[in-house]
Each structure stands twice: as C-alpha cells, then as structure tokens.
Design goal:
This protein is α+β, with helices and mostly antiparallel strands and 130 residues long. The chain has helices at 4-9, 54-74, 116-128, and strands at 17-20, 24-28, 38-42, 79-83, 94-99. It binds guanosine-5'-monophosphate.
Length: 130
Amino acid sequence: MATIFTKIINGEIPCYKVAEDEKNFAFLDINPLAKGHVLVVPKTEEDYIFNLSEEDYLSLQAFARKVAKALKAAVPCQRVGVAVLGMEVPHAHIHLVPLQSEADLDFRKTKLSLSPDEMQQIANSIAEKL
Ligand code: 5GP
C-alpha cells in the first residue's frame, strides 16, 4: 500500500507544494513547528533514510539544500535547522525548520495552527525563491 507521502506526491492527497524534481518532492508540514516547516521527501518509497540507494540519498540531500536556501531567503530566520525522525510516517523525509533559537527544533512542543491562506502564502513565497 502506498504511503501517505506517496499519495501526496501523486496528488491523491492535497498539500502545500514547495518544489519537485525528477526524484524528490517538498511540501509544508501540516503541523508545523515554525512558519515555513518543510518536508523533503524522495519519490522512492523507502522507510529509513539511510537505506536509500546512494544515488537517491545524495539526490535528496542536494535537493534539500536547494529548498533550504530558498526557505532561508523567504522566511526570516537565523538558520534553517535539519532533522530526520521518521517516527510517524514510514517514508523517508527530511524536516527543514526555520530557527530563531534551538528551542524551535523541539518536536515535543505544541505545533502551530496556520490558516490555509497563510500556508499557501508561505509555500508560494518559498517556491518563488527557488
Ligand atoms: P516523523 O515521521 O518525522 O516523526 O513525522 C512526520 C511528519 O509528517 C510530522 O511532522 C507530521 O506533521 C507530518 N505529516 C504527517 N502526515 C502529514 C500529511 O498528511 N500532510 C503533511 N503535509 N504533513 C504530514
């Protein structure tokens, strides 16, 4: 059965899309830790990121770097933090989170609830910087 992220990539489940290339896809996390929290996902269905082929892993990291640079340009922050958890969704993904302080990368904290308009605006502003 397809993962929820594959369904998002295939357009079967809606998302706030940021970017896509041949092998990878980026969209906003639906429960963001901070404004501009992005998930970067390989199109290949693999649960554990370090089990991706070397080619797919390097492609994912290079794509994440491009998205992170656009994210930094679009959303005011000190740095873009990077995290890999995979505790919830069994499809490899990289979290990119705009940081003002290290506390912003605490996955235990209450997530933001942003309006659809605001989510769309954030996704568009990141996409424009790519
Ligand atoms: P992890 O697997 O890294 O522990 O967490 C999965 C992340 O995916 C969570 O931050 C969660 O908010 C996000 N997520 C789960 N389901 C969806 C979804 O259907 N759409 C989007 N945009 N994000 C999701």
